[in-house]
Amino acid sequence: MTSKNRYARRSHISEGTVRDLIKLFAEGETSSGIARALKLNRNTVNRYLTGIRKRIAVFCEAGYLSKSADYELYCVQMRQCDRGYDPKEEQDAATSFAVIISSDSSRLHAQILSGGSLPEMLAADGWIRHNCLGEFGYMGFFRPEKTESGGFSPTTRYRKILRLRELLRQRFSILRGIQRQTFYLHLKECEFRCNYSGRDIYAAVLRIIQEDPLD
Fold first, then answer.
1. How far apart are CA 171 and CA 156, in angstroms?
2. What is the Cα–Cα distance from 93 to 34, expressed in whole angstroms?
C-alpha cells in the first residue's frame, strides 16, 4: 500500500520530495533552481509553488493583527524601475499598496490598493483605528508630523517596511516582472517572510501545508 503523503493530495512525487521542495522554497530558491535540484518538471514545480503561496496568503489574511487594535498605516509606492517590466501586460504590477503595522512594530500586514483614499478603503475592510498615516515613497519615508527633533529616526517600523519593499524589488528583478494576477500572492509571501524574519520559515510553511495539503 502506498503511504499517505501528508503534504500533497494525489501526488505523484514522494512526501520526502515535497518536503525538499518546501525547504528550497523557504530558502528562496527559484522555480527553475528547484526543478533542477529535484529533477522535476518546471510546470510541476510552479504548480506546487503557486499552491504554497496561496496557502501562505490565506494564513496571512487569517490574522496577524486584530482589526480593532491600534496600528500605524502607511502607503508604499514602487517606481517603474523598482517593479520591473512584464511584456505580457500593458501595465505591470500595482504601483502602490498599504502596509498596516502593529503599534509595537512586531507584525505587518500588506494590502493592495485599488482606488479611492487609503483610509476609506481600509475602513471598508474593517481597519478603522489608526494613529498614524504616512507614506513610504520614491524618496524614502515621510510622516505627517515631525518628531521633537525635527526628523525621523530609523526605527524597527522603518526597517520592517524597507525590508518588505526590498524583498519585492528582488522578486521583480529575479522574475523579470510579475504578472498582475500573481502580484498579490508574491506580496503576501514577502509579508510572511518579513514577519518570520529570524525564525524557521521552513518549519512554519511545513505546518501551514500539513494543515491544508497541496493539490
1. 23
2. 25
Distance CA 145, CA 132 (A): 9
Interatomic CA distance for residues 31 and 52, integer angstroms: 12
Domain enclosing residue 189, as ranges: 71-197
DSSP classification of residue 133: E
Task: Examine the domain organization and report whether 79 and 100 are in the same domain.
Answer: yes
- Sign of the Cα torsion 74, 58, 187, 201 reads positive
Per the listing, cell 500573481 goes with 182
The Cα–Cα gap between 85 and 98 comes to 21
Find the radius of gyration of the CA atoms of the chain.
19
Q: Which helix (H) or strand (E) holds 49?
A: helix 42-61
For residue range 82-128, what is the model confidence (pLDDT) as tens digits?
545 444 444 444 467 888 887 777 788 888 876 666 667 667 777 76
Determine the residue type at 24. Answer: L
DSSP string, 191-202: HHHHHTTTS-HH
Domains of the chain: total = 2
Confirm whether 25 is domain-assigned. Answer: yes
- Give the C-alpha separation, 28 to 193, whole Å: 10
Contacts of 119 (CB under 8 A, 6+ apart): 73, 130, 133
pLDDT tens for 138-183 read 444 444 344 555 544 556 777 888 888 888 888 888 887 777 788 8
